[in-house]
Write a structure and sequence with these properties.
Largest sheet: none
Number of helices: 2
Shape: globular
Low-confidence stretches: none
Number of strands: 0
Radius of gyration: 13 Å
């Protein structure tokens, strides 16, 4: 089994809950998504970490 990178795991930790919140109408159309608020809600860092090549 291939080792999953930390970047991929972190992206999944944000992508799935964010999509679910949008699809369940937790965020209405034209609702501004603020990075700082999202990172706090999802308990993730705002720091950009590039995946090593």
């Amino acid at each position: 089994m291939a080792k999953q990178s930390t970047f991929t795991i972190a992206a999944d930790a944000v992508h799935k809950p964010l999509c679910n919140a949008i699809l369940s109408a937790d965020y209405r159309p034209n609702h501004r998504l603020v990075e700082q608020e999202l990172s706090t809600q999802l308990n993730v860092s705002r720091a950009l970490r590039l995946e090593p090549r």
